[in-house]
């Protein structure tokens, strides 16, 4: 049985090379949209960088994981500090739908989409990452998104993230077991 339940449950494979994670986020859709599209706010939980507001426009995410957690970055992850991930907006329908390409570095880019739905005073976020290269890519992005979404929940609740890295490592092992090979 997984340790991850409720608003921290594991994502699932919904199709070949596709992972989906759902989270209930505090606050209205418009607030969550700002944390997806505004560079400064997005930098508090994922990565800063410019993002166009129209299909075909550029996205450039610059990851500063050391700013997301009070824990020190383990040696094996230091190579990702400052990593830049370019992409293109596929669809942008404020404030409920955003999708863009995600460079995998080994061929065709994958695609990440965010769907936002009002859920009372909260927002249901459905994140789908598709066209992933293989099992290893699925494990990497599922554990990465899962951990980053935990940071987003903390940010939206005004809480600090104590240890991004130990959670990421635990999730990598868990997703490796549950996602299809």
UniProtKB/TrEMBL annotation:
Coiled-coil parts of chain: none
UniProt cross-references to SUPFAM superfamilies, sorted A to Z: Bet v1-like
Pfam families documented for this protein: AHSA1 (PF08327)
Signal sequence bounds: none
Domain Activator of Hsp90 ATPase homologue 1/2-like C-terminal: 28-153
Matching InterPro entries: ASHA1/2-like_C, START-like_dom_sf
Top-level taxon of the source organism: Bacteria
Transmembrane spans: none
Family: Belongs to the AHA1 family.
Protein name per its UniProtKB record: Uncharacterized protein YndB with AHSA1/START domain
Species this chain originates from: Phyllobacterium myrsinacearum
């Amino acid at each position: 049985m997984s340790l991850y339940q409720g608003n921290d449950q594991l994502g699932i494979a919904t199709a070949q090379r596709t992972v989906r994670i759902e989270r209930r986020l505090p606050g209205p859709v418009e607030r969550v949209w700002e944390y997806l599209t505004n560079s400064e706010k997005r930098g508090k939980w994922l990565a800063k960088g410019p993002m166009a507001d129209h299909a075909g426009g550029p996205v450039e995410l610059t990851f500063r994981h050391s700013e997301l957690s009070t824990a020190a970055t383990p040696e094996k992850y230091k190579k990702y500090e400052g990593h830049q991930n370019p992409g293109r907006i596929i669809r942008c329908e404020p404030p409920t739908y955003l999708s863009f390409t995600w460079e995998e570095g080994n061929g065709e880019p994958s695609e990440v989409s965010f769907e936002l739905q009002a859920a009372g005073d909260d927002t249901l976020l459905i994140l789908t990452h598709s066209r992933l290269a293989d099992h290893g890519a699925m494990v990497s992005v599922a554990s990465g998104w899962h951990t980053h979404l935990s940071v987003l929940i903390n940010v939206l609740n005004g809480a600090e993230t104590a240890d991004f890295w130990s959670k990421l490592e635990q999730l990598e092992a868990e997703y490796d077991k549950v996602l299809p090979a």
